[in-house]
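Technical appendix A lists one of the benchmark inputs used to test multi-chain prediction within the project. The record comprises two sequence entries:
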Amino acid sequence: MTPDTFPSLFWSYTAVWAILAVYIVTLGVRLSRLEKRFSQIEDASDERK
Amino acid sequence: MTPTLFPLITLTTLVLLGIAQFFIFMVVPNEQVMGAVQRVFYFHVAAALACYAAFFVVFVASVSYLTSRNKKHDILSVAAGEVGFVLCTIVLITGMIWGHSAWNTWFRWEEPRLVTFLVLWLIFLSFTVLRNFGEPTKTAVHGSILGILGAASVPLVYLSIKLLPQSARLHPEVVEHGGLRDASYWQAFGISVVGMLLLCALLVWVRYRIGRAEDRARLSAREDMTYDA
């Protein structure tokens, strides 16, 4: 009889999507930090003008 | 990548991964001995192939950086190394869950494929930590050497299972031994591999763009400091 291994399958794919989601969120956080940094640089150069 | 190509490739990747999930959960039949958990195979192997592709990019970009000192190549190697590490983590975790369900063990130290893959993961963990927390200009050369070393160990991971006797193996060789007999197995496998390779390329591209922008921001900040002084 084939064993019931569906819970392991479920947790495997949950792990795949969770790891990818966490990585994509960290990329998003880095992007928003960069946007802030560039706007600060722009503000600083505007003040000088 | 042009602004119109990026959404198109993103959409294609999402559609392919969605179709792959549909095939994996709804179409392919259960494997007779292991049951449903054998369906982990499709994303486990696809992620492994995608991480090997990312490490190949690390190898080429690192060699290129060491010979030319072109900053763009260094940024590309960091991007590919980081994405490869994420995919490597997916392979390791899905493999452990699969192993626990099918062979009643999370990890076996006598198994060459598992140990060599863990070493590969540790090398790229060090690479990612070094490149993300170290000063980019100071860690570029050491990072490139570590990247080359890590990428060069990929053939060792692949060959580890072939060089040792059958008795030392736990990890299966499904594709090499013609294990996928049903046509739906091949369809699910093919779509998963293409989807995962596209996802890998997209993530490397996005991470590369972020790396370039971070580099520009650093240069601008330095110019500002010089101006203020």
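Chain A has one helix and no strands. The two ends of chain A are 78 Å apart (CA to CA). Comparable benchmark entries are summarised in Table A2.
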